[in-house]
Amino acid sequence: MRQNAEREVKDAKLRPLTKRTNFGTLNLVLWGACRAEEHRDGSRESGGTALSAGLIMMAAQALFTILATRSGKAGMAGAAGLSVVGAGTTAGVLGETITYRVLYPRTLDPPKVAVVLAAIVLAPLMSILGGRRLRAVRSSGP
User: Fold this and answer.
1) In this structure, are 2 and 37 located in the same domain?
2) pTM score, two decimals?
3) Read out DSSP for the chain?
4) Which domain holds residue 39?
5) pLDDT truncated to tens, each residue of the chain (142 aa)?
6) Are residues 69 and 100 in the same domain?
């Protein structure tokens, strides 16, 4: 019995991860390079979802936010980075199936709805404000 359980765990780590989106099936071949978390519904994920960003994405956003407060090249890099992260987050939130499941009237869960709506509003806002900051830093530069 224990050997079967160990074999299943080993097999799960070696299988490529498949992520379903509204745009079809996107195969993410991670082959054990990144440990995926298995959920009760059988889905597997790594790197964050529409409800919670991955650690790398959050660290990048924090770094770019700090850099955007500076002037010169560092400020331009931070503002451009915030614009790119905001655009990527917007695409990610709108591409996740959980976004539409949470907003579906029959499965409405108010706390999750608040998180998804905040992501839908704040991600493009980050991109827009990053672009505005980029223009401001460029115009004040030498």
Assistant:
1) yes
2) 0.63
3) -HHHHHHHHHHHHHSPEEEEETTEEEEE--TTSSPPEE-TTS-EE-SB-SSSB-HHHHHHHHHHHHHHTS-HHHHHHHHHHHHHHHHHHHHHHHHBHHHHHHHSGGG--HHHHHHHHHHHHHHHHHHHHHHHHHHHHHHH--
4) 1-46
5) 555 555 554 544 444 444 444 444 333 332 233 344 445 544 555 567 767 788 888 999 999 999 999 988 999 999 999 999 999 999 988 988 888 888 888 888 888 999 999 999 999 999 999 999 999 998 886 6
6) yes
